[in-house]
Every structure is written in C-alpha cells, then in structure tokens.
Amino acid sequence: MYAKCGSLESAHKVFDEMPERNVVSWTALISGYAQFDRSKESCGMFNNMLVEGYRPNEFAYASVLSCCDREFGKQVHSHTVKTCFDCYMYVANALITMYSKNKDDTHEAWMVFEWLKSRNLVSYNSMMAAFQTSGKWEEAVKLFTLMRHESDIGFDRATLLSIFSSLLFVKDCDNSYVKASCLKYCFQLHCLAIKTWFICEIGVITSLAKAYADLNAEISNLYNLFKETSGIRDIVSWTAFITIFAEQDPEMSLSMFCKLRLEDFSPDRHTYSIVLKACAGLVTDRHTLAVHSQILKHGFGNDTVLANSLIHAYGRSGSVHESKKVFDLIVEKDLVSWNSMIKIYGLHGQPKKALECFDQMNLPPDSTTFVAVLSACSHAGMVEKGTTIFESMTKSYGIVPQLDHYACMIDILGRSGRVQDAQKLINEMPLKPDSVIWSSMLGACRKHGETKLAELSAKILQELNPNNSLSYVQMSNVHYSNGTFNEGLDIRMQMKGLGVKKDPGLSWTEIGTRVHEFGAGGVHHPQRKTIFNDLEKLVEELKGLGYVTETNLVMRDIEEEDKNRELNYHSEKLAFVFALKHGELKSTRRAIRIVKNIRICVDCHNFMKFASDLTGREIIVRDSNRFHHFKKRVCSCDDYW
C-alpha cells in the first residue's frame, strides 16, 4: 500500500520490520522503487534478494528490468536464462523494452523477440517501439505487416502510435518513390484506424496528421483531419496541429491559434513558442507583434524560452531592432538567447554587432554559437576573423568542428575567391563532406569562374542528392556564363530527362492584411498588365540615375532587348512595384518588405539599391540566404552575398 502511494521510505520501514519475508514482499518493494524510477534502490533490493537466497519470480525480473540500465540489465538477463525465466513472455517483453533503450542498436532486442516461441501484443508493440526509437521505420512497418498476416493478434492504440511515429523518419529520405509509397501505406493505416474506431482517439489522429505532414500530404487533407477532432481537442492536440501547420502553412497555423483563443482554451508556453515559429515564416512582423502582446497579457513576459522565440520571430520577419529590444529585456539570458541574437545579426548583415555579442557572452559558447558567428563572418567576407574563430574552437574552447562549421569555412574561403584553399580544407577534413559543403563549393566555383572544380563539385553533389536541382542549375549557369550555351542546354535537357525540376522564383509582399504572391514573369497575376507598365516606367527612371541591367545574367542566347525584358520580370521586382503603388497611401516611412524563395540575383540587387534611392523608401528583401536592407543606394550586405 505504501509503495503504491509513493511512500517508499515507509514501505521500506515496514519491510525491515517484517519477521518473515517471502518472494512477494521482496517483489512488492522492488516494484515500488521501479514504479517511481528509483533504479538504484530497485537494483539494490534485487541484489539483496539474490544474496539472501530468494529465487525471483517473473514479476521481480520484469520490475527491475523496467528501470535498470543496459549493463545491469544484461546481468539480469543472464540470471533469467540461468533460472529459465527468459522463456516467460512477461519477462521477455521487459527484456525487449530494456534493450530498446539503446537507440543505436536493436540487435539484442530482436534476438530476444525471435527467441520467443509465444508472443502477445505487448511483445510486438515493444519490438515495434524499439525500431521506432532507433529510426528503423522499414523494420517497424515490416513487423506490423507480419503481425497482421501471420498471427491472430490484433492491435491497439500503442501499435498505431509506434507505426505512425516510425513514418516520421521518412521525412529525411531523398527518394521520392519511397515517400510516395509510405504516403500510400499511411493512407491504408488511416483506413484501418477508421475501421477499428481508433481514429476517435485524439492521440492517434494527431500522430496520423504528423505522419501525413512529413510525407508531404495535401494541406487540405491535413485540415480535414483537424476538423475531425472537433469536440475532443485539448490544448495538447491544439498545439500538435498548430505545430504541423507552422511548417506546412504558417498562415493556417495562425488561423488555428485564433480559433483556439475563440474556443476559450488557454495557450501554454509551448503553444506560444510554436505560434512564434509560424510568425517567423511570414512576410512582416505584424503577427509577431500581436502574439507578443498576448504573451505579455497572459503573464509570460519573463519567460526566457518565449523571449528566445520572439528574438527569432522578429529577426526572421525583418525587425532586428525588435529582436534586440527583447534580448535586452531578458533578465537571465541563456545560451539560446545569445545564439539567437548572434544569428539574427549575421542574417541582417551586421557582422560587427554579431562579433560584439559573441565577445559579451557571459556563458561558455557551444557548437551552435560558432555556427552563428562563422555564418556572420561568411556573409561579410571576414576571412581572417572567421579563420581565427574557427581555429579557436578547439584550442580555446575544446569544441571539435563538425560538418556545419566546415561548411561555414568553405563558404568563407570560397566567397572571398580562395577556392583552392577551400578545396584543400575539404581534402583535409576528418569528416566526409556532405551536400551542404559541396553546394558551397559549387557556388564559389561558379562565382569565381573555376569551371573544372565546379564540374567536380556538381558531379559529387548529384551523387549525394540526385533529386536536387541545384547542381544541375549551377553547372548549366557556369556554361552559360562562359558562352558555351550548348553544354548548358545539355544539362537542362538532362534535368528534364531525370525528372529533376528547378524551384520557380517566387516573391511575396504584404499589403494591409493580405499577402500577394508573384512568380517570375508574372503571367498569372490578375493585375499583370498594370504592374508591367509601372515597372517599365520605373526602370526608365532608374536608368536616368545610372542603373544598368545585367544582361549577361540571362542564361540564354537571345537578343539584348529580350534579355532586358526577361530581367525586368523577376518576381521581386514585380512585388516591389505592386507594394510601392498600393502601400504608399498608408505610409511612406515604413519599409517595403519582400520575401523571396531563392537567392536574389545581381541585377535585382542593383535594381533595389537604385529604387531605394529614387523612392526614398527602405526596402527589405529576405531571400533564401539572408536579409538585404536597401537604403539610399546602399545594401546592408555591402554587395557581398
């Protein structure tokens, strides 16, 4: 009784005062300690039981196995074999669970499972959970299929949760065929959950939604799942769905947060942090400001975790000043606070402030800190400073450089023109270079005309990530820049034959409460004729200030007039002209903000510099790499990006 209530000291006192003990009394106390995760006492009691000559029963074995570490668990396993209790299903299930705690190796758990002559649902669930925690989704799926086909054992909520969670690991798979197959399998599991009524359980439906999201299911299907949870949602399920949509559709995530508030649910700190993550993916800081006010209203103003999320959200939506204000108000800054502020400074082209922040840290930096600092140096062309910091990682702080740090150094050296030094560093790396490193190398080779090294980098990149268009596009651009149009065209044809598609250039800007999307060429925009006319007039005015189109950037052998027209219709230019016309009546002081999904080209960069001078407006462009703040014909990146 005492053990069940958590009064273990009282239970132990009663145990010590017992004139006679038996296996049941020993097992009860071992189980009590195990239940409250006091593994040291549980293992100690088990040892004492053996020393005093008592033979453990299956419940004693299972209890101690539920809380012991791997080393002691192996000793208990040996004892079960000696006493023939390893054949007991209850004990074997506990052994599988114990071995599955080692996420890197499920071999021993599988050996126990295979040895079992008779298995129950717990046996299968334990083994599937072991595969799931170790990321072996294929084995988990195969075992579930085997269980369904070769036994009369049914399944329960835990089974479905393990399988859905296993499918989350497919997210990192580059094979589109595998993802499509898993999506089909997920649909079959969905049907099975409906048939058995497990779909009515909120835990099952949220796990299913997460699996669908990671397998790139349609947003509309995910929203239909969300609607099916009406009436059974709690704050945990609300937060789970908001998390899913924060990555897939930030606007939908915010809409769901508003619905949560309308249904009188009280968001917790985790809910707020996820909503702020969604805000970070939007064009302006308007939504971040609104959520920030809610955080203050509900008494979370002093929460360091939420403050860190605010730093990130404000910074990613273009307001580095607001990020700094939040950072300065944090009473107890943790390592994430410092890392977030350094990263934001680097993204916004303020490397000196990033380095000042690094010098002011009152906590030992970690691996993430150095990625943020090195990235800031990379964006600003600070080669010597970046090299010094990279070398100090091991010498001064004892941090061994990982792939992220090497990628930053390759970028630092490559951007500055020291391509041979970058290649030398790759050859000397103690780690195998990944696709990020070769991508940085390829970009540097293209920028500085290193055709042979570019070909080598592109070939390796294609082997590492054959479905990514980057290596093909970059290499074809190298050929176009060199005037070898036929070779560039061959690569584009190769892409088409392999089914590799290039991401289209898209830009977004927010007018009032509505976000407008623009594609390169603008052919689908309903106001395209007006936008084209306004853009052509603006270009003529900019040419009067000295703006010259970079026609050499057009990667096709076409007439000069056509090149000018193609450059004029880049998505960020269309977004700017639209924002200038429709936003000027509201305020001429607020910056025009544009988000682009790929890197801004040199011509558009020059265009924005001249446009900021002509209109007297600050222009903030967030591309795939960083922020560009254009003001009075100057960009925060100092034309180095």
Could you characterize what this model shows?
The structure is a single chain. Among the domains are: 233-348; 506-635, no CATH class. A 6-stranded mixed β-sheet has the order 2-1-3-4-5-6, with helices on one face. The N and C termini lie far apart (68 Å). Helix 9 packs antiparallel against helix 10. With 641 residues, the chain is mainly α. The protein is 65% helix and 4% strand. It is elongated and about 100 Å long. The model is unreliable at 556-564 (pLDDT under 50). It has helices at 2-5, 8-17, 23-35, 39-51, 58-65, 70-82, 89-99, 107-115, 121-133, 137-150, 157-167, 176-195, 202-214, 219-228, 235-248, 250-262, 269-279, 286-297, 304-316, 320-329, 335-347, 351-360, 367-380, 383-397, 403-415, 419-428, 435-447, 451-464, 470-481, 485-498, 528-545, 560-568, 571-583, 602-615; strands spanning 506-511, 514-519, 592-596, 619-622, 627-631, 634-635.
Comma- or semicolon-separated keywords:
641 residues; mainly alpha; 34 helices
Summarize the SSE layout with pairings.
Layout lengths: L1 H4 L2 H10 L5 H13 L3 H13 L6 H8 L4 H13 L6 H11 L7 H9 L5 H13 L3 H14 L6 H11 L8 H20 L6 H13 L4 H10 L6 H14 L1 H13 L6 H11 L6 H12 L6 H13 L3 H10 L5 H13 L3 H10 L6 H14 L2 H15 L5 H13 L3 H10 L6 H13 L3 H14 L5 H12 L3 H14 L7 E6 L2 E6 L8 H18 L14 H9 L2 H13 L8 E5 L5 H14 L3 E4 L4 E5 L2 E2 L6
Parallel strand pairs: 3-4
Antiparallel strand pairs: 1-2, 1-3, 4-5, 5-6
Question: Using only CA atoms, what is the Rg?
Answer: 30 Å
The helical percent reads 55-70%
The whole-number mean of residue pLDDT values reads 84
Given helix and strand content, the structural type is mainly alpha
Taking the sheet with the most strands, its summary is: 6 strands, mixed
| Number of separate helices | 34
Our estimate of the beta-strand percent is under 5%
Question: Any idea what the shape is?
Answer: elongated
Ranges with pLDDT <50 over ≥5 residues? Answer: 556-564
Number of strand segments: 6
Distance between the termini: 68 Å
Walk across the major sheet and give the strand order: 2-1-3-4-5-6
